[in-house]
């Protein structure tokens, strides 16, 4: 029974890690393929935030199952630190993306329009 639980947990962790890597890769492709500054920043801001959170959540599940039971206090606090990191990423990444876009707009970077050449 324990082996089945470990197998299921590892499968869930691998799914979270794979989904995180997928979104990070999608953001990188968006950075390379989209036509202007705003759409590139939008793709990377969304995909990187979700990708990072999924990867950290997968690591959180792995750590809770394998290291937390019966460990010393410093090891038991790692999941709490990972949760704080997830919260920080959810607040900091969209805020930073918005600030960069607003600064670009205020300095005169024009958005791409259909029919324009790619930059």
List the main descriptive attributes of the protein structure presented here.
single chain, 119 residues, mainly alpha, 80% helix
Any overview of this molecule?
With 119 residues, the chain is an all-alpha fold. It contains 4 helices and no strands. The mean pLDDT is 90. α1 runs antiparallel to α2 and α2 runs antiparallel to α4. 80% of the residues lie in helices and 0% in strands. The chain has one domain.
Draw up the topology in text.
Elements: H1 2-33, H2 37-66, H3 73-76, H4 78-106
Helix pairs in contact: 1-2, 2-4
Which structural class fits the helix and strand makeup? mainly alpha
Number of domains: 1
Inertia-based shape: elongated
How far apart are the termini? 57 Å
Uncertain regions spanning at least 5 consecutive residues: none
How many distinct helices? 4
Cα gyration radius (Å): 19 Å
Helix content: over 70%
Mean pLDDT over the residues: 90
Tell me about the largest β-sheet: none
Order of helices and strands: HHHH
Beta content: under 5%
Say how many strands there are: 0
Task: State the gist of this model.
This protein is mainly alpha-helical.
